[in-house]
Design a protein that fits this description.
- The chain has 15 helices and no strands.
- The chain is an all-alpha fold.
- The chain has a single domain, classed as Hypothetical protein af1432 (Orthogonal Bundle).
- It is globular.
- Bound molecules: magnesium ion.
- The site of magnesium ion (MG) has 6 residues, from helix 4 and helix 9.
C-alpha cells in the first residue's frame, strides 16, 4: 500500500481553503529539501517537530507574568502557548485558512522566551551588543539550536510567522517586527494578544494585584465584564472584521489584513495598556521582574567567564562566549535559573526558591 495517498488527500483538501490561505503546495519549503511525510502535510509535520522539542517542554516552567508561580492555576508559558494555539485554530478554521500552519506557528511562537518572561528578555537585551528579542530567539532555537545544533528544518512560512509574532506596546497591529507573510501568521500574532490579555487579567486578579472592577470601563462595556465574554467578543470580532480573508468576494483583490473592528481593536489596546500600567510594569510584579533581571545578568556574566560550563545541548561550542552564554541562559526555566544562580552565590537568587517570595 502506498501511504502517500493520505498526504496527497490532505493536500487536495487544502485546495478547498480560502484563496488567501497558505497551502503546502505553494510553500517556499525547507532550507534543506527532504522527502515528505507519507501521512502528514508539511505544516502538520512542523507542528509535531515543535511539540517534541525539549525547548517546548521547558515552557511549563517558564514565566508568563508571575515568576515561578507555586499555585497551580497561574498561567505559564506552556499554558499560554496552548491557549494561543486554541484561539488561532478557531480563527483560522472560521476564516477557512490553514489551521495546521496556524497551530504550528502558535506552538513555536514563544519557545525562545528566557526565564522570568519579559524581564529575562530585557536582561539579555542589555547584555548582548546585538540585543535579544524572544521572537528572533524562537527562530534561532527552532532553526539552529534544537536537534543537536542541526535545527528542525521547518518550512519558511512557520518560521516567518514566529519571527513576526511579536507586538509593541500601544498597538497590537503595529508593524514593529514586520507583518507576517501569511494570513495564518497574522492570525497567530493577534491570537497571542487575545490569549495573554485575558489570562493575565485572571492571574492578576488571582494574585490580588487588581480586581475585576479596576478594568477600564470602556473596555468592559465593549468587550464584556467576564473572562468568557471578553474572549468571545475578541475572537468573534476578529473573525467578522477579517471576513474578507475567506476569499469569497469576487474580483482580483489583494489579500486583506487580519484585524479587529475599530471599536473592539481600540478597546483591546486600552485593556492591554491598562495591563502594562497596572500589572506588567507595576508594584510587586515589577519588583520581582527586577530581581529576575539581576539573576539573568548574573548567570550571563558567569557563563561568559566559564563557557565550558554552558551545556552543549543548549549552546553551540563554536560560538563566541557571549552567544553561548545567552543561548544557555535563555534556555533555562525559572526554577533551573534560580537554582543554578543560588548555587553560584547570586544574592538575588537566595531565598527565592519554590515556596518563598511568592505573591499569593
Ligand atoms: Mg506569546
Amino acid at each position: 500500500m502506498d501511504l502517500n495517498v493520505v498526504r496527497r488527500e490532505l493536500e487536495d483538501r487544502e485546495e478547498a481553503l480560502s484563496r488567501f490561505a497558505a497551502r503546502t503546495s505553494t510553500s517556499r519549503g525547507r532550507r534543506r529539501p527532504e522527502a515528505p511525510s507519507p501521512i502528514r502535510t508539511a505544516y502538520q509535520r512542523d507542528r509535531d517537530r515543535i511539540l517534541h522539542t525539549k525547548a517546548f517542554r521547558r515552557l511549563k516552567h517558564k514565566t508568563q507574568v508571575f515568576i515561578a508561580p507555586q499555585l497551580d492555576h497561574f498561567v505559564t508559558r506552556l499554558t499560554h502557548t496552548l491557549e494561543v494555539a486554541q484561539v488561532a485554530r478557531t480563527v483560522a478554521r472560521a476564516l477557512n485558512l490553514n489551521e495546521d500552519l496556524a497551530e504550528a506557528a502558535a506552538l513555536g511562537h514563544d519557545i525562545g522566551h528566557g526565564p522570568f518572561g519579559h524581564a529575562g528578555e530585557a536582561a539579555l537585551a542589555e547584555c548582548l551588543p546585538e540585543g535579544f528579542r524572544h521572537n528572533y530567539h524562537s527562530v534561532r532555537v527552532l532553526d539552529v539550536l534544537e536537534n543537536n545544533g542541526q535545527g528542525l528544518n521547518l518550512t519558511y512560512e512557520v518560521l516567518d510567522a514566529i519571527e513576526r509574532s511579536s507586538k509593541v506596546r500601544g498597538d497590537i497591529f503595529a508593524d514593529a517586527w514586520g507583518v507576517p507573510g501569511t494570513l495564518e501568521g497574522q492570525v497567530v500574532k493577534t491570537s497571542d494578544a487575545i490569549a495573554y490579555v485575558n489570562h493575565d487579567i485572571l492571574d492578576a486578579i488571582r494574585a490580588g494585584v487588581i480586581t475585576e472592577g479596576d478594568l477600564p470601563v470602556a473596555a468592559r462595556r465593549i468587550l464584556g465584564s467576564t473572562h468568557q465574554e471578553r474572549l468571545d467578543t475578541l475572537i468573534t470580532d476578529l473573525v467578522e472584521a477579517s471576513w474578507e480573508a475567506r476569499g469569497e468576494t469576487p474580483g482580483d483583490r489583494p489579500a486583506p489584513r487580519i484585524r479587529f473592528s475599530d471599536h473592539v481593536g481600540d478597546a483591546a489596546n486600552k485593556l492591554r495598556e491598562f495591563m502594562f500600567q497596572r500589572v506588567y510594569l507595576y508594584g510587586d510584579t515589577r519588583r520581582e521582574a527586577e530581581r529576575g533581571k539581576q539573576v539573568v545578568k548574573f548567570l550571563f556574566a558567569y557563563f561568559v567567564e566559564h563557557p565550558s560550563e554552558a551545556s552543549e545541548s543548549f549552546a553551540l561550542p563554536g560560538d563566541p562566549p557571549e552567544r553561548r552564554a545567552a543561548d544557555y541562559v535563555s534556555g533555562m526555566t525559572d526554577r533551573f535559573a534560580l537554582r543554578v544562580a543560588a548555587q553560584l552565590g547570586c544574592p538575588e537568587a537566595q531565598g527565592w526558591l519554590p515556596g518563598e517570595g511568592q505573591m499569593r
